[in-house]
Write a structure and sequence with these properties.
By secondary structure, this protein is of the alpha/beta class. The chain has 15 helices and 15 strands. 39% of the residues lie in helices and 15% in strands.
Length: 447
Amino acid sequence: MKVLFVTGKLADRALRETLEAMRPDFEYDVATLRISVAALITTPFILRVLKPDACDLIMIPGLCPAEPDVLNEALGIHVEKGPRDLRDIPYHFGVERKREGYGQYTIQILAEINDAPLLSYDEILHKAKYYQTCGADIIDIGCTPGRTADNVEEIVSRLKTEGFTVSIDTFNEKEIHQADKAGVDFLLSLNGQNIHLAPELNCTPVVIPDFGAGLESLEQNIATLERMGVTRYLVDPILDPINFGFSRFLHRLYEVRERYPNAEMMIGVGNLTELIDADSTGINALMVGVMTELDIRYVLTTEVAHWARGSVRELDRARRLMHYARTQGVLPKDIDDSLLTIKDRKVDWRTEEEIRDLHGRITDPNFRIMIDGKHIYCFNRDRFIKDTDIQRIFHQITDQLGPHPASHAFYLGRELAKADIALRLGKKYIQEENLDWGYLDHGLPGD
């Protein structure tokens, strides 16, 4: 395979150095167009000036507005955009090879609609569709303890009519009978308190230990189901929160799998993600990794706590990652970036020397912004600003540009960028206040 990399004059050196260090297992060439900034390369410009030799792929800059489909049709050569940072090109090609066949999974996700009987059906349906879009396989109707609902049968029936697989989370016998009559697929849960209902049920029950009891209780309840002739069930050892038995839970989980190697099992990870002041992403990934090792194929989650929002999507991505890693016999690393939501996989910052070298070659008044991991650099042909505080950078630039209207545009751009970040990450945004980044707000050690 031969690849033609298209770039502008300012990025020519960096691209060639990246490709040389990469030592790819394919032939390549670089086409440096008569334009300084690669991000400004358009479709008409490429068609006007590019005369490609024989090649199999043309890679255009990731930030440019050129349209690969149009170029592909006009040039008769496959065209695609590269990564937004050209230094990610080696990783771009490596990932494409490693991800062949990626995306399969065995774990089924149950997503709970908390206090569902207290909601209108439209609200329930909206949440169910949201969870399904996020990757949920089963919609769990979470009932309210101590309050018997009369609309459970209707909720289950209507969701089933919409094509959903449905479970119900309740110990209330009336609600259990209503749901089972309406065709619910799973019941959460049975223990010594209500296990007598098992022979009457058409749905698949989840068996758990008695309240406050341990592994012996769980074994007794499993044995009771078997004596009743109930052979289709899930086993849930019940995840206890950190400081309230989480370590014992991990031991219990392993013991259950050892004693019941063929049993279908479930874990409710909400008891962990919802009850800790930490982002849910890594926690969900870790728990799915544990489940994959132990062949546990059902996971229950909620998205009640704001910091646990997105847990269904996180579990969906984690089950694909862990399944691929296990079937390929590799670590769940360098495969998929989806769960690296706050920190990037790799940050290859430019050095101050490289940034100053680039500054010396710029001939236009447009400002560039770069970072080296410790400082922010803002520069054009006339100015070179190095600082760590965007407010000071803002004032230095606006002092040069004048108070109107450039300063206002700079201000709006800064605030809009902050608002966009807050929206994507679910963070609080208050105009003219910094976003809250937890421990990262305290800077680097030694600064």
